[in-house]
Amino acid sequence: MTQTGTAADGQTPANPTNTANDAPLTRRAARQTEALARRITPVRDAPLPGGRRAAQAARAAEAAKASSSARKRRFLAPVVLTVAVGMFGTVAVAPAVAATQQNGTTAADAQRQVRAAQAQQFSVSDAVALAGTSRDGFGATAQSTLDAEAAQKAAAEQAAAAQAQAAATQAARAQTAKQYSSYNGPSANQIASSAAAANTPFSLPAVVATAKQYIGTPYVFGGADPSGFDCSGYIMYVYAQYGISLPHSVPLQDAAGTTIPESQAQPGDVVIFNDGSHDGFYMGNGMIMDAPKPGGSVSIRPIWTSSYHIVRFGI
User: Fold this and answer.
1) What residue spans of 24-142 are helical by DSSP H?
2) From CA 22, how far away is CA 108, in angstroms rounded?
3) What is the distance between the alpha carbons of residues 181 and 227, in angstroms, rounded to a whole number?
4) What is the pLDDT tens value at each position of the chain, 315 positions in all?
5) Residues with Cβ < 8 Å from 237, sequence gap 6 or more?
6) With 0-12 CB in 10 A as exposed, 13-18 as middle and 19+ as buried, what is 229?
């Protein structure tokens, strides 16, 4: 849009600096007025009448711009403040939580220290600890008592098992002897009683001489007479002839004799295997005379193991 006027108006400067009716403008206001005039007036050569109105328009534009800037500052200030507070809170939360946990841990440690410092100590004698106690109808038995009871029970069970095994063995021997025996003479126990009554003289060479009389007698399980011998039955029958009564069992014969060093052993002493499985007459030079096993017979042969010891009877 353009404005027209008189020749006198056309001679009025576009940006007055001082008139009788207009207030003086600063340099900034003057530049803003010129810029506003260029935007409004498309024709650069057209004069702008009314310097006072132009100045007022410039002031109004400046005021509008200042007002807009103020509104932006008023709007942005809370936003910036909110963002800053949020960032500060985020940074401060972790140390605060850590401090809280540390304070809580410190308090718990302090309580434990107080309890430890105020704890009472006392000692109990071994006699009290081992004694049985009871309260309100409930009882507690000392471990030593329980161990002793368990040992007694195990010993009783072992003894019962040994007795049952011995009874079964005796029954088997009696049955076998009845099948194979053709001997009608006295038993080993009867012979031992008669020899003891007659005070038959005893010596190891005499024992060897008597034992050799039965070489070739077949092995019979449970046999204890000249019709057939097993290992302990052979020992029992020979020694019975010198008034020495022995049980029909390797372990029991071992218990009835006196163990001597092998360096002192003589023929006629008894070789006992350490596992209680066999015995026979010691014949010197590492030899044994025994009733070996089913299918065998009384003979003299080398001792085939080193796991044995020597037992002597009649002393």
Assistant:
1) 27-40, 51-117, 126-130
2) 82
3) 5
4) 444 444 444 444 444 444 444 555 677 777 777 777 666 544 444 444 556 666 677 777 777 666 666 666 666 667 667 766 667 656 555 555 555 555 555 666 766 765 665 555 556 565 555 555 555 555 678 888 899 999 999 989 988 887 787 777 666 666 655 655 567 889 999 999 999 999 999 999 999 999 999 999 999 999 999 999 999 999 999 999 999 999 999 999 999 999 999 999 999 999 999 999 999 999 999 999 999 999 999 999 999 999 999 999 987
5) 188, 191, 214, 224, 225, 226, 229
6) buried
Tell me how far apart the alpha carbons of residues 59 and 65 are, in angstroms, rounded to a whole number. Answer: 10
In sequence order, what DSSP letters do the residues of 219-275 get, joined into one string? B-TT-EETTEE-HHHHHHHHHHTTT----SSHHHHHHHSEEE-GGG--BTBEEEETT
If one counts every other C-beta atom within 10 angstroms of the C-beta of residue 56, the result is: 14
Distances (CA, A) of 120 to 123, 129, 242: 10, 19, 77
Whether this model's pTM surpasses 0.90 = no
Phi first, then psi, for residue 241 (nearest 5°) are: -75, -5
CB–CB of 180/229 below 8 Å? no
d(CA 183, CA 180): 9
Local structure of 297: helix, strand or coil: strand
Say how many C-beta atoms besides its own lie within 10 A of residue 112's C-beta.
10
305 C-beta neighbours (distance < 10 Å), count? 10
